[in-house]
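Entry 12.
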Amino acid sequence: MANKHTKNGPIKNMEELCNNKITPKKLNDLMVKLEEFYAQRPKEFSIFKLAGLILRRLKSDRDFFMVFEGMRGTGKSNALMLVMLVMSRYAGIWRNRVTGEIKKIKPRIAPLPSYWEHLEVSFDFENNLSFLDEVEVLKKKFNSIDRYMPFGIDEGSKNLHKYNWQDRLQQQLIQLSDTERYQNKGFFICIPNFKELTTTFRNDRINIRIFLVVRHTEEDYAEAIISAKDESRWTDDPWHIEENKKHFEYTLRKIPVAQRNWKHMMRAEKKLTGYLTSISFPSLKTLSPEIWKTYYRYKIMNAQKEIVHEKGKTSKQLQSYQFAVKQFIAFLKTKHKITWKSIAQICKLSTTQVTNIWNSTTEIEQEYRLMQQHGKVDFKEEEN
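Predicted 3D structure (tokens):
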């Protein structure tokens, strides 16, 4: 039975264990340590410059969508949190030490004058982050945060693909990006493979990709590549995926795949269409153990939530389609010995999506298997 997002649900339990809010002092201490980290790399593009670019776009009455991608363990969630916290560093409740005036400040690039005291930080883990939330809860969270604030979807792969291809949840996320654009908020998603996103979502919504290439565990920082979408109206693929794939392999053609390291990858990535710059992300866990502990505890308690899936007519239809595809996959594998990669190409899906479908079990399939056990369905006859 799915966990429900109610007053008595997981969120309340989490709040009893930790506070969703970050104190101004903890946030300011983190900013000081981040400044020290980038001061040691004066020629590099910093997270402060990245946050400034995002905020300038939002304040020009536009929206912004960014993806953090890379292999598991490279630091996507760490980078997501750092970007969101830097964007939010001046947002919150402030008090004028001279006049006593209280103001609520939205995210901004420049700090307030020194006679202003930061009383409360706007960012909180409850509303600015989403872990496998139901669609309506996700909407509620997104609408609850202030203009120009960041909104992050961690565990994006699970969130977008828990019910696999063409599900209502994925359609609702696309609709959210359409209907709520006027709010000028930053939308951030962590996902291992960029190609897992639907073509419409990645081509029409995503502005920037941050690919985490390597995580240096001893030095406590990760290196990443920033790529931008081709805004030309003449291109069919604004990310030049196939073109860059060929160029990447050509650049590293003399280096066997098994011998390639992160330095080879960084060199090749910098030659691809859409490359902007590289960036380093220090470890939030090292710079601010308390903030990281709060985030990680929140993640653990929320990442396992089940999405309450609407069991309507459309849902049943999609389950039927999914089960049909699964039967088709079984036929290809057993009768023709076709590989996963070839099946993905035939179905116009990624290999990950195909394996997700294969590993999932829908209600319709459960009913079918139950009928099969009771002799009401002859699977062999159906295959023939």
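Annotation: Strands lie at 64-69, 92-96, 102-105, 116-121, 129-131, 150-154, 186-190, 208-216, 221-228, 275-282. The first strand starts at residue 64 and ends at 69.
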